[in-house]
Amino acid sequence: MTPIELSNPVYSDEDAARTHIESIRWPNGPVCPHCGVINDGIRPLGGKSMGPGWYYCSSCKDKFTVRMGTVYERSHLPLHKWLLAFRLMASSKKGFSAHQLSRTLNVTYKTAWFVAHRIREAMADHDPEPFGGKDKVVEVDETFQGPADDIFVNGKGWQKKRGTASKRKIVSLVERGGRAKSVKVEDLTVKTLKKVIFPTVVLDSTLNTDEAQHYKEIGREFTKHESVNHSQGEYARGETCTNHVEGFFSIFKRGMVGVYQHCGEQHLQRYLHEFDFRYSNRIKLGCDDSERTTRAIKGADGKRLTYRRLNIGEAA
Ligand SMILES: [Zn+2]
Predict the structure, then answer these.
(1) 42: CA distance to ligand 1 center in Å?
(2) What's the 302 CA to ligand 1 centre distance in angstroms?
(3) 45 alpha carbon to ligand 1 midpoint, in Å?
(4) How far is CA 53 from CA 14, 20, 35, 64, in A?
(5) 38 C-alpha vs ligand 1 centroid, how far in Å?
(6) What is the CA(32)–ligand 1 centre distance, in A?
């Protein structure tokens, strides 16, 4: 990642941080989060009692700040610390752990953990533009994550359980030269895979997968389906390959092993949002660290995330 310009006042000065977030969230001036009114309907609230950053909406006669209706709502953390957290998570290729974040922001581990998960939520693209299209290739593959559950076998003691049945399953879609989308799934049946692939990939696309049986039926729905035969040692045949989605998995796995060592199953999807986000907004697509950070901050809008939804009691 490029060095963070720590001298930038948005990382130390609260007014500068708030103004920066306002300019990203409201490029054309404040918008009332209660009723959507803009321009003349809104005036800044002065006065020492309120503190800076408050606005009054004359239409719904309510007041608001830029935090309202975003992932920062109800957080007591200063916005300049939020901005630094966004910058660190958006620009660290393998992620930024809650321990590192806690030290860097000088906050408790619990606060850092919560901030990190809210930023992952801001990074989530819940309704992405469809992938693929005419002459475009979308690679689909699955991977497994998490430790094997050991099982006790009489006479042998604890044994590593073989196979992947107990592991967490992830399906990823990567548009070649484009974005990634990853979904944690319960199983790898055709029915489940259809639910992941069909809403995301345009049927006009060329689908590239491995030889797994479950992709055959799905592949028939697409303009073209090409597969490589991994079990026969074939990894690429001309343009046909799944190397891009496998490259994505390798970044994800290095991050999960090196940075995020423990990840509760209920939080896995949010980590996937984070890795999808950085991949989909990467340098090769013309998005540098600074622009990626801005895009994540834009995503903070409309995504409140509460402690209850995070189930913090079960935090790893
Ligand atoms: Zn209003």
Answers:
(1) 8
(2) 16
(3) 14
(4) 10, 12, 18, 8
(5) 8
(6) 5
Residues of the chain below pLDDT 70: 1-2, 47, 147-152, 158, 160-165, 303-316
Would you list the DSSP string of 238-256?
A: TTEE-HHHHHHHHHHHHHH
**Dihedral (CA of 184, 114, 70, 27) sign:** negative
Question: Which domains are delineated in the chain?
Answer: 137-271 (3.30.420)
How much is the pTM? 0.89
Distance CA 116, CA 110 (A): 10
In tens, the pLDDT along 11-56 reads 999 999 999 999 999 999 999 999 988 888 899 997 677 778 999 9
CA 27 to ligand 1 centroid distance, Å: 18
Q: What separation in Å is there between the alpha carbon of 117 and the centre of ligand 1?
A: 29
Span 212-231, pLDDT tens digits: 999 999 999 999 999 998 88
